[in-house]
Amino acid sequence: MLPRPFEIRARRPELADCVTLEMAAVDGQPLGFAPGQFTMLYVHGVGEIAISISGDPTASDTLTQTIRSVGAVSNAVCDLQEGQMIGVRGPLGTAWPVERAIDKHLMVVAGGLGLAPTRPIIYWALANRDRLKSIDIVYGTRSPEQILYAQQLLGWSTTDGVRVGVTVDRAGHDWTGRVGLVTDLVPAMLRDPAETVAMVCGPEIMMRFAAQALADAGMPEHDIHVSMERNMKCGIGWCGHCQLGPHLICRDGPVFPYPAVRDLMTVWEL
Amino acid sequence: MADSKFKSMADILAAHPLFAGLDPKITDLLAGCATNAHFLDGTYLFKADGPADTFYLLRSGEVALELHLPGRGRLTVETVHPGHVVGASWILPPYRWRFDARAVGTVRATGIDAACLRNKCDADPGMGYQVMQRFLPIVAERLQSTRLRLLDLYAPPAEVGRAL
Where in chain A is the domain with CATH 2.40.30.10? Predict the structure, then answer.
């Protein structure tokens, strides 16, 4: 599976170490993806990394991805400028089961950069608002300065039928919002546990406790979905680098029903 | 004819999640220690190292628990929201607050005289046990929340898999 050449059409700094790239296929064939899927981004001569797609699934002519600069390859991706080329394989992996939220309350729980892989759900939900009972976005991050897509969160919070709850782990005196763990905010925003579908993405410990909080509040576990992260290399289930128990995250995930991975979350060295 | 909208202090206490479902005899006793409290935006419910003589059941508004760090100013370590409790240091000696509690927006609360409540708990250990059963989960939840935040979950990860 060869990378397809894409051109960087726009580069938008998000946080101090985080950039959003908008890319377009050189051959003009749109990528097309479902919320939750990822691509392998290849910087020529440097290497390849798995990155979740964070754009609007209906805007298929543009591939939008938010990347945090944490190592050699992601640094190189973040350094790319408008007009430069990048290789793309994908879309890969499983999708958020957004259709299950129709006629129900949708709760998106995101932590840190976990908002990026869940943003396509939010775009989808806003486009299908009349088919959902409500949309609740619960977001936790490190500090007010680390809030991803801050302007969008603000905009969504003023949209009919949408509630946005933001909490940070620590803040200065000038922050008037909530300070505390995202898992504390989850039960406070849950409307009707039996009629809710939840999509959870963030650091694995955060997902574990958030999913537990949802289940403790009365949500059926099969209505909770999580996006797992492991060391993906091939992206198509060949190399085994991203094995998690019986699953290969790149092939069987990254999105899983919570019951499929719940017990694996507490197993050491998986 | 009594105003049907009038709520006694025992009713107010029974309606708060902390004491909801408690034996009415106990909420009647607790009501003797309770008063209504009101704080304007930016004023302090209490300050660190002050005597933990009154804690608050929050009915509306938000409260920021803060600590002043020399050279860094005031930092908010947690916010408390309606339906929750402001202050736990009244339970154990030396009965002194550990943090400042600042009203964010107008705060309406029920203040509980801590010495009064401790005396009633001492006099009736059965009641004291039930009151502590209501407080212990709050303390445990805050401990767990604090421990998880100590992990700094959102710190930049090593470059593995999806770059969250």
Answer: 4-92
